[in-house]
Design a protein that fits this description.
The complex is a heterodimer of chains A (294) and B (192). Helices cover 43% and strands 13% of the residues of chain A. Chain A is an alpha/beta fold. Classes of the chains: A alpha/beta (294), B alpha/beta (192).
């Protein structure tokens, strides 16, 4: 009998996105530009993170009309965001037929203690993480894909780098631990023991791991790929720049050819101005999105 | 033996694991046409067919692969790879290699929430059923006279072969069943 929504099918779609770029879009026109530039999926939003940051107030799931219009405009998979812990927003997105749900710190959390039980859904979820313990807690809850949190809407890659280095470093560390030390490591990280054992055996996360939060240039994308991620999310970086179509295409090429400096030099030329960036130190602690999630 | 795996985007890593699990065989990730040189077989993995078709055209892969396949290079396409191999894609003019005489339908089983796995019969792999994983999968609506149907699911063609070209709508690389890859490696062995 056909089984829908199995773990293989959920984690499998993320494998199909690997090596690709997922772009934030707010209109069907932007979605077409992203698809034509070679995006492997789009994230349907009402506002990109930079605008959410500027607007303040409570950020929620996008209007289903916006999401539906974007789903109708492209053939690549469409993702959409729900607030942390808001399982009813997730039920609505599943009903709409979106291909992936991002339980995202970019929106205002709906629950300050618990994330969504993602095993309860047929639609797969991606979640943000700053370190290995956080990544494994999300996978334990059913996330079939992980991304760094970075600091969304800043055009500043420093936090994504910090989070990717942290996750990769912790993976290397537990790979070298004797088996009897893995339980203490699990306790210390607040991570499910069986997943810690699995990571120690595999030498990587058991799901695809993308970079997100502050990526604005082809060089940023290639940097994250060389640090060991499997693909790239670009939020505000494309449609907040001067020439979105050219920049989108260049970031796709840089993600595929991340180890080829000649191609990276070529695609970095003449892209016009990138999005204006934000110093992380200039953001007050209560406005740091990466600290949302538990 | 050296098997190239097109690594523009998609499940290339899983195909490499699978091929290496089949024996002492080398793999190469292929991101530029020059890297096709010296391979004995090529795998086009699953991924997003729209994206992959675009990138293959942009990086100049279509003619070199057609040429190598014309000289007898075995090619195995799964999911998006199957779409890239098909001559006709229903309702689409996207770039493709287009070497297999068949008409395919993209996203034919629905969106991601309809993606599924099931046991299917693949007679050329033996009597034991094959666990087939369908992710936003295509299927083959029609094949030409020279194309051998290898598997059907609910009356729809989901695997086919034309000479040294092999195509599956599902993802054998996401399972631990090596038979489909062994079947392809056997085509490569006979060819070289």
């Amino acid at each position: 009998m056909a089984e829908k929504g199995t773990w293989t099918v959920k984690a499998g779609l993320a494998e199909m996105l690997k090596g690709g770029v997922i772009m934030d879009v707010t209109t069907p026109e932007q979605a077409k530009i992203a698809e034509d530039a070679g995006a492997c999926a789009v994230m349907a939003l009402e506002r990109v993170p930079a605008d959410i940051r500027a607007a303040g107030g409570v950020a929620r799931m996008a209007d289903p009309t916006v999401i539906k219009a974007i789903m109708d405009a492209v053939t690549i998979p469409v993702m959409a965001k729900v607030r942390i812990g808001h399982f009813v927003e997730a039920q609505i997105l599943e009903q709409l037929g979106v291909d992936y749900i991002d339980e995202s710190e970019v929106l205002t959390p709906a629950d300050e203690q618990h994330h969504i039980d993602k095993h309860a859904f047929k639609v797969p979820f991606v979640c943000g993480a700053r370190n290995l313990g956080e990544a494994l807690r999300r996978i334990g809850e059913g996330a079939a894909m992980i991304r760094t949190k970075g600091e969304p809407g800043t055009g500043n890659v420093v936090e994504a780098v910090r989070h990717m280095r942290m996750v990769m470093g912790e993976i290397r560390r537990i790979q070298n631990l004797p088996r009897e030390e893995l339980m203490a490591a699990a306790k210390e990280m607040g991570a499910p023991y069986d997943l810690v054992v699995r990571v120690a055996e595999l030498g990587r996360l058991p799901v695809v791991n993308f970079a997100a939060g502050g990526i604005a240039t082809p060089a940023d994308a290639a940097l994250m790929m060389q640090l060991g991620c499997d693909g790239i999310f670009v939020g505000s970086g494309i449609f907040k720049s001067k020439n979105p179509a050219a920049r989108a295409k260049a970031i796709v090429a840089a993600t595929t050819h991340y180890n080829d400096p000649q191609i990276l030099a070529e695609v970095s030329k003449g892209l016009g101005e990138a999005m204006p960036g934000l110093e992380i130190a200039a953001i007050s602690p209560e406005h740091r999105m990466q600290d949302r999630g538990w | 033996m050296l098997i190239g795996v097109l690594a523009l985007q998609g499940a290339f890593r899983e195909h490499e694991y699978m091929i290496r699990a089949c024996g002492d065989i080398e793999t190469r990730q292929i991101r530029l046409p020059g890297q096709l040189e010296g391979i004995d077989g090529l795998i086009i993995p699953g991924g997003e067919s729209t994206t992959m078709g675009k990138l293959m055209a942009d990086y100049g892969f279509l003619d070199p692969i057609r040429e190598r396949a014309g000289q007898g290079l075995p090619v195995f396409g799964t999911c998006a790879g199957l779409i890239m191999l098909a001559r006709d894609i229903n309702g689409s003019n996207q770039p493709r290699i287009g070497l297999m005489d068949m008409l395919v339908e993209r996203n034919a089983f629905g969106r991601q929430v309809d993606s599924f796995e099931d046991d299917i019969e693949v007679p050329c792999l033996g009597a034991e059923p094959f666990r087939a994983v369908f992710i936003r999968a295509p299927y083959i609506m029609k094949v030409g006279a020279g194309v051998e149907v290898l598997a059907e699911y609910g009356g729809r063609i989901v695997a086919a072969r034309e000479g040294r070209l092999l195509a599956a709508a599902f993802h054998p690389e996401l399972t631990s069943d090596k038979r489909m890859h062994e079947y392809f490696l056997n085509i490569v062995k006979i060819a070289s």
